[in-house]
Automatic annotation (TrEMBL):
<feature type="transmembrane region" description="Helical">
    <location>
        <begin position="12"/>
        <end position="34"/>
    </location>
</feature>
<keyword id="KW-0349">Heme</keyword>
<dbReference type="Pfam" id="PF01292">
    <property type="entry name" value="Ni_hydr_CYTB"/>
</dbReference>
<comment type="similarity">
    <text>Belongs to the cytochrome b561 family.</text>
</comment>
<dbReference type="GO" id="GO:0020037">
    <property type="term" value="F:heme binding"/>
</dbReference>
<dbReference type="GO" id="GO:0009055">
    <property type="term" value="F:electron transfer activity"/>
</dbReference>
<dbReference type="GO" id="GO:0046872">
    <property type="term" value="F:metal ion binding"/>
</dbReference>
<keyword id="KW-0472">Membrane</keyword>
<feature type="domain" description="Cytochrome b561 bacterial/Ni-hydrogenase">
    <location>
        <begin position="6"/>
        <end position="176"/>
    </location>
</feature>
<feature type="transmembrane region" description="Helical">
    <location>
        <begin position="46"/>
        <end position="64"/>
    </location>
</feature>
<dbReference type="InterPro" id="IPR016174">
    <property type="entry name" value="Di-haem_cyt_TM"/>
</dbReference>
<dbReference type="GO" id="GO:0022904">
    <property type="term" value="P:respiratory electron transport chain"/>
</dbReference>
<keyword id="KW-1003">Cell membrane</keyword>
<feature type="transmembrane region" description="Helical">
    <location>
        <begin position="139"/>
        <end position="164"/>
    </location>
</feature>
<feature type="transmembrane region" description="Helical">
    <location>
        <begin position="84"/>
        <end position="110"/>
    </location>
</feature>
<dbReference type="GO" id="GO:0005886">
    <property type="term" value="C:plasma membrane"/>
</dbReference>
<protein>
    <submittedName>
        <fullName>Cytochrome b</fullName>
    </submittedName>
</protein>
Amino acid sequence: MSATAYSPIQKTLHWVLFILVLALYGLTYGNSLFQRDDPNRALAQWLHISFGLLLAGLVIWRVVMRLSRGAPNLPPSMTGMEKVLAKAAHLALYALLFTIPVLGIVLTWFRGDSVSFFGLLSVPAPFSPDRDIARSIKAIHGLCANGLLILVGIHALAALWHHFVRKDDILKRMLPN
């Protein structure tokens, strides 16, 4: 990998994850537009779970890529505090991107449902349903998802600030060639 840019696979995974996060958030709010007995609501939920599992798999792949290929060097113009904040933000992004799907899986099981990946693989709940626990997990799942969106927004603003104000190559490292 270049010392100034991520690999093409890392770039692709970054942008696919971004699109998936937006799609999952959209499915969550789209789901609330349907009545409880509307089949479209069940479809939206099924898609949300399936795409959430896809997200989890891609996050694992992205982490493996990051560990094996590393990241480009940060510009020398960044202060020590900026570098610490950048690393902390990336760690928080990875943690949330991993934690949210895990919470979603556990939530689905506590609702008493199987976790299905686009109908190709289905894993039944390994324990009895518990609606009270499910409600608690749903709240945490939602809080983490909202936190992820806020962090993604800050991440994007920081990249734009580096590009337009600092005029360094931070944003260019993740853009397609």
